Amino acid sequence: MKDIFTKFGAVAVALAMSGLPAVAFAEDGGQEQSGDIQVTSVQAEQVQQVGEVNREAQKQSVEISREQEKQQLEASSSLQREERDNGQEIDFDLEDDSDRAVSIADLKQKIEMRKQELDQEEASTTESRKDIIKNANPVRLAVHALLASKDLVDGIGQQVSEIAKQMNDSVATTTNVEAKVQARGFITRLLFGGDKASGEAIAKAVEKNQENIAKLTELLAQANIGADVQATLNAQIAALKDAQTRLQALADKERNTWGLFSWRF
Q1: Fewest CB within 10 A of the end CB: N or C in the chain?
Q2: Same domain, 194 and 111
Q3: 93: phi then psi, degrees, rounded to nearest 5
Q4: Is 102 helix (H, G, I), strand (E, B) or coil?
Q5: Is 185 helix (H, G, I), strand (E, B) or coil?
Q6: What does the pLDDT look like over 40-81, one tens digit per residue?
Q7: What is the DSSP string of 191-209?
Q8: Which residues contact 114 (CB under 8 A, 6 or more apart)?
């Protein structure tokens, strides 16, 4: 009996001993599994962080692209404005005879108000056109004064208005021709000289304007109008004459300036 118990105890001990590795393996396996879970969690967090970084980088890239496009559009618009300013037509409102003066005081006030408007227009224009508008404004002001005086120049109002309207059309034409001349670059002038076609166009306009100014001067001299009206309109006629002198000088310069590749016949 004792031997049986002894053998039974040995078997039990053997069985117990044989189970230890399994338990140990189970315990090690649990720890390893726990470690795997922790590693997976860290990896997921890293992936999430990388994703956020990528999204932020993409967002910044989009913003940079939009800013670059905006700058390109602004640069393109600026270039287009500059190209439009250089030599292309200048649009401004022509004068009309709808705002007529009823007295010499009213005429002077209208002239002053129009001068202020023209000065503001000159100040607000682009630098490339400022001088051109400045040159045109005295003529525009004179035309405005002549048209506004229609009811103050007894007997010759219609004739004065017709001459003023012709001057109106002329200043629109010569201003745009002058803009074309001004846009002619240094290299072009050096190689080919002045813009002779524009010079001829300006000279023809000046010739016609001088004829109209002479008619206007004669009309005012013969009309029975007040001394104040006469003096006010004569001042405007003087401005018209000065403008023609300047335009004639510009025409002569363009016609007589030769370049390296100009041919003299």
Answers
A1: C
A2: yes
A3: -70, 130
A4: coil
A5: coil
A6: 666 666 666 666 667 777 777 777 877 766 666 654 444 444
A7: HH-S-HHHHHHHHHHHHHH
A8: 141, 144, 145
Compute the CA torsion angle 164, 210, 139, 87 (nearest 10 deg): 110
Instruction: Give the list of residues 6+ apart from residue 138 with CB closer than 8 angstroms, or none.
Output: 239, 240, 242, 243
Which residues span the domain enclosing 125? 96-256
Q: Judge contact between 248 and 178, C-beta under 8 A.
A: no
79 plus 101 within the same structural domain: no
Q: Which two tokens stand for residue 254?
A: 């363009």
* Long-range own/partner contacts, residues 15-19 (CB < 8 A, 24 or more apart): none
Specify whether the CB–CB gap between 189 and 259 falls below 8 A: yes
Cβ–Cβ < 8 Å for 131, 259: no
CA torsion through residues 28, 34, 35, 40, sign? positive
* 223 and 132 assigned to the same domain: yes
> Are 107 and 194 within one domain?
yes
8 A C-beta contact, residue 191 and residue 260: yes
Q: What's the mean pLDDT in 192-219?
A: 95
* Average pLDDT, integer, range 130-137: 93
Question: Phi-psi bin for 263: left (phi > 0), alpha (psi -120 to 50), beta?
Answer: beta
Tokens of 147: 């048209």
| 15-24, 72-81, 96-105: the lowest-pLDDT one | 15-24
CA pseudo-torsion sign 74, 80, 82, 84? negative
